[in-house]
UniProtKB/TrEMBL annotation:
One of its GO terms (molecular function) is oxidoreductase activity. It comes from the Eukaryota. SUPFAM superfamilies: Clavaminate synthase-like. This is Fe2OG dioxygenase domain-containing protein. One of its GO terms (biological process) is small molecule biosynthetic process. PROSITE patterns: FE2OG_OXY (PS51471). InterPro entries: DIOX_N, IPNS-like_FE2OG_OXY, IPNS-like_sf, Iron_ascorbate_oxido_reductase, Oxoglu/Fe-dep_dioxygenase_dom.
Amino acid sequence: MAPLTEKAFVGGTEIDVAPLEVISLKLLLEDDQNERVKLHQAAQSLGFFYVDVSDSKEYLADVEQLYSTTERYFTQPEEAKLRDFMAMDEFRGYKGGKNWGSLEILRDDVLHDKVSLPTVVQPDAATVQHFIEFSHDMVHTLIASLSKTLWPDSAKNLGDVHRANEPSNSSLKVYRGPMLESLADVGDNTHTDGGTLTLLYTDKWGTQIELPWNKEWAWVGAKPGCAIVNVGDTLQTLSGGKLHSCRHRVSQPVAGFQERWAITYFFRPENGVTLATL
Ligand SMILES: O=C(O)CCC(=O)C(=O)O
Ligand SMILES: [Fe+2]
């Protein structure tokens, strides 16, 4: 039976909340079999779930710090941000418009000191590096666990196409996406993520996912001490369609301008990997 949506109130409006499982990173690290099965089921059914990282206080402090870095970055004048613009198709640099902006920092660039960080981000270079390292270790824990449940009787391993020292486009991406004064101005940006796994931290309602069993939209709220994690198209393909890359979008439940920040880690495969069932 499909799990029921829950209800919440935002500014007096009742909303449907997606029934996301909470997976414990600590239990996965202890190789807990029940937790592994729970992760597999969550990745298979909704493809969206929480990962509880509340034991990792330093990492959560890094996330908090990144919110202020993000705010500081986006409140600069447009000319300053445009200095960080790369090509539209690159997984790095600043992109933006009137009511949105993103800044992407590639893991490889940070590891190999290839591209210098934007000036206002430089004081937080250590935070950026720690966040990327911890996020990367965490997604590796998730794919190691998923490999065991996807292929219990074989040596197939998602880690084989995500080797640590091979070039990849895994990145930290921070966003400005304010809630707008009028709901009529909110555009539709329904999509699936292309990569393997996405980690998301946000301070406000906004994320909506399409429930696979009835195609209805439900909201995903921030949960203290947890990352919101979702399966991307690459992982759906590598798993032979067993894991679900869920359609989602960013919208807003009520009218009224409010800034909204999001911090994401996009875990992507090694460059040049052929996308097919592993
Ligand atoms: O900001 C959000 O809530 C989600 C962002 C997102 O879906 C994405 O960056 O792919
Ligand atoms: Fe997304």
